[in-house]
Design brief:
single chain; about 350 residues; alpha+beta; six-stranded mixed beta sheet; two-stranded parallel ribbon; about 15% strand
Length: about 350
């Protein structure tokens, strides 16, 4: 049935579903695939009914919960979507997508020439090529990318700063806390967001990831000052965006990961453009400090900032060296190139 749907053969998919229903009428997976079949034909209510039946048969059916969350969000039924999101957390607390603040959703603010949407779209031609070549492992990886979460995009029409890019997402975040993840900062072991979430659960307020940088580089980042309330956790009393090295309040630089409260979305529209005529998120956070506490978590994990050409090149080499597929060969190539 799934293959028939992917190849746009609805009659074959319908025959597969009906045959499966005759064999096992109480199988939640069969109800799930009937839901997808209806949705692929634009039959929204029939699709919703089939997905709900799948959950009635198996209340913790992860795929049905994900599909219904996306459907309800697209239909504007946010309360129902939030209810399903809570069920999703209870059903699978260790799965990747429950670490997103808008559980089950990824939101991208894209610049004029950015094409991140393509990274999460299905590529039927590529999947067909991998399937015909028998590369099951790669096929599974490609399909998993598009199934990570419900993905939404909004275009930032002009480069007006990080604060403005975040503000573009206000219709998606509503009254919930949310994560901000800068695309040019990579944290390969994916342990950053859970740490931010843990500190938020214990202290409340917004939480920023920070990392120590050498003094001569602090002018590239937003920098915090504050007091350490426990090992590796600071209560922030000020933030400065890209200060001169001799004026920086510390060497703890904000490292591209934020857990922010709804107060940030209330403040951002009131922020006047600052350096470079951009709306800076750091300026908004300074205003938030007047009303709420903000905390910072020192990241002890390895992260990569790809914000310039040299660091982008270094990141590609460092990560490639860690892979089984290319690590040894690349290491030998580097030895040869370096003499």
């Amino acid at each position: 049935d799934g293959v028939a749907l992917q190849q746009r053969r609805p009659l074959a998919a319908l025959e597969a579903v009906e045959r499966a229903e005759r064999l096992d009428p109480r199988n939640p997976a069969v109800a799930y695939w009937r839901g997808w079949l209806h949705l692929s034909q634009g039959q929204i209510e029939l699709g919703r009914h089939a997905l709900e039946r799948s959950l009635a048969l198996a209340p913790k059916y992860i795929e049905a919960l994900q599909a219904l969350i996306g459907l309800e969000m697209q239909s504007g039924r946010r309360e129902r979507a939030l209810e399903l999101q809570h069920r999703l957390i209870a059903a699978a607390p260790s799965r990747l997508y429950v670490e997103w603040a808008r559980l089950g959703e990824l939101y991208f603010s894209l610049g004029e020439f950015e094409r991140a949407a393509e990274a999460f779209d299905r590529s039927l031609e590529l999947e067909d090529l991998l399937e015909r070549s028998g590369n099951v492992h790669k096929l599974r990886e490609i399909r998993n990318i598009s199934d990570l979460a419900e993905v939404f995009y909004v275009r930032q029409k002009r480069p007006k700063g990080l604060g403005h890019a975040v503000l573009c997402g206000a219709p998606f975040t509503g009254s919930d806390p949310f994560f901000v993840m800068l695309g040019d900062v990579l944290v390969p072991n994916n342990d950053c967001l859970p740490k931010l979430k843990d500190v938020h659960a214990r202290y409340g307020g917004s939480v920023l990831a920070v990392t120590p940088v050498e003094q001569q580089y602090v002018s590239r980042y937003g920098v915090i000052s504050g007091r350490e309330v426990e090992p590796g956790v600071w209560e922030i009393n000020d933030l400065v965006e890209k200060p001169p090295a001799n004026e920086a309040p510390s060497n703890l630089a904000i490292f591209g990961r934020y857990l922010l409260t709804p107060k940030v979305m209330e403040i951002l529209p009131k922020i006047e453009p600052g350096r470079g005529h951009e709306i800076q998120l750091t300026d908004a956070l300074r205003q938030v400090l007047r009303e709420e506490e903000i905390y910072a978590v020192r990241m002890d994990c390895v992260g990569y900032d790809t914000g310039n050409i040299l660091s982008w090149l270094e990141t590609n080499i460092a990560l490639a060296l860690q892979t089984e597929e290319f690590g040894d060969q690349l290491r030998e190539s580097l030895k040869r190139l370096l003499g």
